[in-house]
Amino acid sequence: MSFGSHPRKTNKKNLPLEALMPQVPRSNYLQFQEEKQRLQLKKFLLHRMFLVARITANIEKKDIADYYEQLFQSILKRHLGEAVTGLLLIYPTSILHILESSSGTLYQILLDYLSHKKDDMEFFIQGMKIIVMSHNIPTRLFMQWHVSVIKAPVMYLDDVTQTQSLQEVMTEFLIQTHKLALHLFKTVKVSPKGPGDSLHQAAPELLLPEQIIKYLCNSAELMDPEGFINMYNKPIHVILDSEVVWPAPSRF
Prior knowledge:
TEX47-like, disordered C terminus, five-stranded mixed beta sheet, alpha+beta, BLUF_domain, 15% strand, Alpha-Beta Plaits
């Protein structure tokens, strides 16, 4: 004679604590480090600035990289936690620089450039122009600040600067730089090496020709750092209704 077996009731009080906790998929150490860095970089309103400039011919990459690294460290001492991320592309005679940080940090970077421009006529960065400044962006495109030298000339079919308007060239500039940033975001992990100096081999179709960088540097319509700083410091005067003296109603 057989008897049906009844399922034994499990007493939750006797289960280990881990069994009662919701299970969260474990991530590897690299993902943990990346998420930790993202959280650390979300402590202030974030802005992104696109710059172009001319550089002295035959200037060493190390000189440019050292200048910016020392500048970032100096600013970080006064703006704690406001790290700079982005990408510096060094062409033979020009640079393209994307910077992400707080408004105060970006302001100090421009001020330092103006200080060198005023005191050092032979400063290796000249003719800087601000292409665009994106305010209060939701997230960073870069987890670190990277430097890459464009060693080989970027191939192109025609000179678009001769046939397109400034607005069209700027649109192409922003599209290409965002594509490049997304490519690096997907392929470059948190590492001191970064993308290295092989971008012209890894993603040549995403690199802008230097002629576009030089064209934007020479554009009189784009704002330079001095003009931007003057606008930044200009007080915004808002007239309140209580300050307006309205004319008395006419009796006639």
